Please model this.
Amino acid sequence: MTKLLSEFTVGESGKIVAVNGEGKIRRRLFDMGVTPGAELTMKKKAPLGDPIEINIRGYELTLRKTEAACVEVETK
Model:
């Protein structure tokens, strides 16, 4: 099943299928290691849902909800 990273719940994990978005947002995500094929796990989510913290490629990464909405993930 594929869903957006912004829809994940804490503890959920999966593999990135696609990174959408345009220009600066897409490039920023790629620069941080958010690329297709990378495995990730949702670690924390702020009370209002923004920001979120994920574990990807062995490090903790914090993303805004708008950035996470650009990442399509296949859940396990």
User: Anything to note?
Assistant: The longest helix spans residues 23-31. DSSP finds two helices and six strands in the chain. The mean pLDDT is 93.
